[in-house]
Amino acid sequence: MNDIHLQINSLAQLFDSLDPAPFREKALDRDADAYLLESAREYPRSAPLRIVVHGPASLEPSLPDIATAVRANFSLSLQRLARMERFRRRIAWRALALGLAVLGAAIFGARALSDGGWWAQIVSEGLVIVGWVGLWRPAEALLFEWVETSEMRAVLGRLATIPVEFVPDPAAAGGPGA
Predict the structure, then answer these.
(1) Domain boundaries in the chain?
(2) What is the per-residue DSSP string for 116-129?
(3) What pairs with residue 168 in β-bridges?
(4) What 3-state DSSP class applies to 34?
(5) Taking 80 as the threshold, does the pLDDT of residue 24 lie above it?
(6) 97-111 pLDDT, tens per residue?
(7) Nearest to 174 by CA among 4, 6, 11, 5
């Protein structure tokens, strides 16, 4: 089991203080969210993961709430990613249609200039390049971005179901000996 360690001294450190939602529905603090996400990305998809929360013993009764909040945070992030992916794909298909129209017009213009002098040849080649550049973004979105999105979906899916454990830390603020 691969552990992602998270040291907190109070519940307030873990959650976004500006989020007005009830405790279990609160968003994670941006730094905590980013740390957990980056840490989970370091491991292969097949590697088992868990979050180990270190903090004062007084936080141990809150572990079920912490685990629920962490999973809910990443479940919501996964839903947002799915919506964004659908939006981007829809835009990419429109951009592809526009890019093909630009390419067609550029090739048509290049052919119209093909019988001209050296300057017409330069403009003609430039039009062909502009036409192909018009397809760059749709090709990137439809052919390559899905790889990154697929990886992110896998990481968020793992974090949405990750086991969370608690380890009392006597040195933490509020704990014995502090």
Answers:
(1) 2-168
(2) S-HHHHHHHHHHHH
(3) 55
(4) helix
(5) no
(6) 999 999 999 999 998
(7) 11
CA 99, 103, 108, 109 torsion: positive or negative?
positive
Number of other CB atoms surrounding residue 107 within 10 Å: 15
Compute CA 134 distance to the chain's CA centroid, rounded to the nearest angstrom. 26
24 vs 52: CA distance, rounded Å: 18
Q: What are phi and psi of 44, to 5 degrees?
A: -65, 160
Q: Is the dihedral of CA 108, 111, 112, 118 positive or negative?
A: positive
Mean of the per-residue pLDDT values of the chain? 89
| Rounded-to-10 torsion of CA 97, 143, 79, 68 | -170
Q: Above 70 in pLDDT, residue 8?
A: yes
Those residues whose C-beta lies under 8 Å from the C-beta of residue 69, and which sit 6 or more positions away, are 14, 15, 23, 24, 25, 26, 28
Residue type, 32: A
Joined tokens for residue 155: 């990481």
